[in-house]
Amino acid sequence: MKKALITGASRGLGLALAKALADDGWSLLLTARGEEDLFSAAFDLNAEAIAGDVTDPAHVARLAEAAPELDLLVNNASDLGPVPLPPLAGLPLAALRRLLETNVIAPLALVQATLPALRKRKGAVLGISSDAAVEAYEGWGGYGATKAALDQLSHVLAAEERDLAVWWVDPGEMNTRMLADAVGPGEAASAPSPDAVASALTRLVTIRPQSGRFTREALAIATGARE
Asked: Taking residues 73-79, what's their average pLDDT?
């Protein structure tokens, strides 16, 4: 049975992807900071769960120890930063450091910790990116900079670990709590559900195309969701 480790798995896209992979027969190791929601999800999906903060090196070590063989690492956990989203002129540097710890350093730490397990199974790494990584949206400078950094780390990882598949995916706007925090619940409610993206990501993992960056549109084409 194939095994996946998913961060930020208690809600939003992480939870939707966990459900989609479970339906596809995957064994799951789930992590998030919110214990109650995480353990509820794990119970429903018959999955293993380890609650904690991905910026904590001890937590990263526990996750790697719990997955000595791994087919898929999903770096989904993200921090949005202070809201309302401030312009760069008003972005607290301490907040930017926290964003970098969560959105860049923690994913790399998890890659480093799980590489032996991933190499053993010639597995895959999936990083959840954003169009804020490549577009200039007012207020999104801090978050976008971290996602741009994650994109580049993924790109280099793909060049260095050629036996692995490495994908960094911009899923577009989704009706999640993070989007609601950023733009308000009314606008977020009009965005697509994470379930459709999760279904496409599951097909991506199954088809296993070459490493690269995928937008929602490219993901749909690559996985056959659009003729």
From this structure: 98
